Amino acid sequence: MGHLSTHVLDTMNGCPAAGMAVRLQRIEGELAVPLKAFTLNADGRNDGGALLDAQSMAIGCYRLIFSVAPYFRARGVTLPEPAFLNHVQVDFGIADATGHYHVPLLVSPWAYSTYRGS
């Protein structure tokens, strides 16, 4: 059964990015259709489990938007205005609706990396 998940780690502080706001969108041509907005839990994950479950998984293009600068400012980090990274946008494709797609994000105020996790 397919599903989509994410996990965010704060590499500046060496912890999960608890409290970071995240949005999930489906990309349909030039349109970005909102699917879900949530705040990461103490483990840096979505409290509700999968972002897309087996019934809602569909082949197509998607976008996760991570609110990086607001998260670090809320942690007391002084950032310039504008911040170097405000929101990190990760566009990715789902080619197999029965597959497991995990999109982790490792992030600091100045750098990020992502990959297809397991």
Structure in words:
By secondary structure, the chain is mainly beta. It has 1 helix and 8 strands, in the order E-E-E-E-E-H-E-E-E. A hairpin with a 2-residue loop joins strand 3 (21-28) and strand 4 (31-39). The mean pLDDT is 97.
Strand content: over 45%
In the residues, how many domains can be counted?
A: 1
What distance separates the N and C termini?
14 Å
User: Superfamily at the CATH H level?
Assistant: Transthyretin/hydroxyisourate hydrolase domain
Number of helices: 1
Q: How confident is the prediction overall: mean pLDDT?
A: 97
Quantity of strands, as a count: 8
Known CATH architecture: Sandwich
Rg, rounded, reads: 14 Å
Q: Which stretches are poorly predicted, pLDDT < 50 over at least 5 residues?
A: none
* Fraction in helix: under 10%
Structural class: mainly beta
Summarize the main sheet. 4 strands, mixed
According to CATH, what is the topology?
Immunoglobulin-like
Topology as a string of helices (H) and strands (E):
EEEEEHEEE
At a glance:
The protein has 118 residues and is mainly beta.
Per-chain topology:
Elements: E1 3-10, E2 15-16, E3 21-28, E4 31-39, E5 60-67, H1 68-74, E6 87-94, E7 100-107, E8 112-114
Parallel strand pairs: 1-7
Antiparallel strand pairs: 1-2, 3-4, 3-5, 5-6, 7-8
